[in-house]
Amino acid sequence: MIDFRYHLVSIVAIFLALTVGIVLGSTVLEPTFFKSAEEMTASLRQANEKYLTQISQLQTREEGGDSLVTTHLPELVRGQLAGERVVLVEAPGASAALRDPIEKLVTSAGASYAGRVSLTEKFVEAEQASVVDGLATNLAPAGTAFPDGATPYDKAAAMLAGAIVTNDRAQAGRANPAATGVLEAFQAGDFLTLNGDPEQRATMAIVLAPAQPYEGEDADRQTNALVSVAAGLDSGALGTVLAGTVTASANGGVIAALHDTGGVASAVSTVDTVDFAAGRVVVVYALREQLAGRSGSYGIGSGATAFEPTVTAPSQTPTPAASRG
C-alpha cells in the first residue's frame, strides 16, 4: 500500500522538476531563443528594405520610360495610319481615362478619329439578351441570313459593324444607307451611347476592354459578348485591335477569352498594355500590321507572343479582314 510519504515525495519531485525547468529556460534556453529571433527579424527587415528599394527603383524607371515615350509618342507613330479612319468601341466597364490618350494617339498616327461608341451595362445583361437578339434581327436588311448558331451578340455585332466600319476606303467617312437607324435604335434602347461621328464609317476599330474582368455567374456570357463585338467589327473593317490592361489577358479577362476562340484570335490583334504610353504605341503598330494582313497578341500577359509586332511598312492595298491570321 502506497503511504502518505510516497505521495509527498512525488509531489516534491514534480515541483522540483518544474523549478529546474523554469530556471534552465530563463538562464540557458531563453537567451538562445531571443538571439535567434532577433537575428531572423534583422534578416527579414534587411531583405524587406532591399525589396522596397528595388520596387521604388523599378517604379521610378517605369515612370521615366513612360514619360519619355509620352513625350516622343508623335514621332513614334507619325504617319503609321495615314489615310485611315479609326473608331473607338468601349466595353462596359472600360476606363474613361484612356479615351483622350487613344484619340490623341490615333490623330498623331495620321488617321482621322471617327468618334466613340460606348456599350452600356444593359448591353451585356442576361435578361436583355433576347431584346438584343430581336433588335438585331429586326434591323437586319431584307435577305440577311445570320450564320447557324449565331448568338444575339454575333447578330448585334454584325449590325453595329455595318453601321460604323467598312473595309472599302472609298466608303470611309460616309454613312451606310443599309444601316440607317441601327445606331439610333441601339441608343434608344439604352444599349450604347455615342460621341463624335461614328456613323461616318471608319476603316479600323479599337475595342477597349473592361478595366476589370466581369464577375458572377454571368461573367463568361458577358465576356463572350465582347469577343463577338470584336470579331464582328474585324469582319467588316480593315483591322481591329482589342486593347486593355494586363487584367484583360488574365483568367476571366476579355483578351484571354478571345485567345481561346481560335478563329477570332487569328484575325483580331490584342494588346494588354494600353495603360502605358509604350503600349498605346503598340496599338498603332498592331493596327498597321493588320493592314499588312497579319495579326498578333502583344503585351506582357500569358497569352502575348511579343511586346510589339515587327515594324514594317503598311500595305497600300486594303486587305479583307477574312484573309488575316
Automatic annotation (TrEMBL):
InterPro entries: MctB. Pfam families: MctB (PF11382). This is Copper transporter. It comes from Microbispora siamensis.
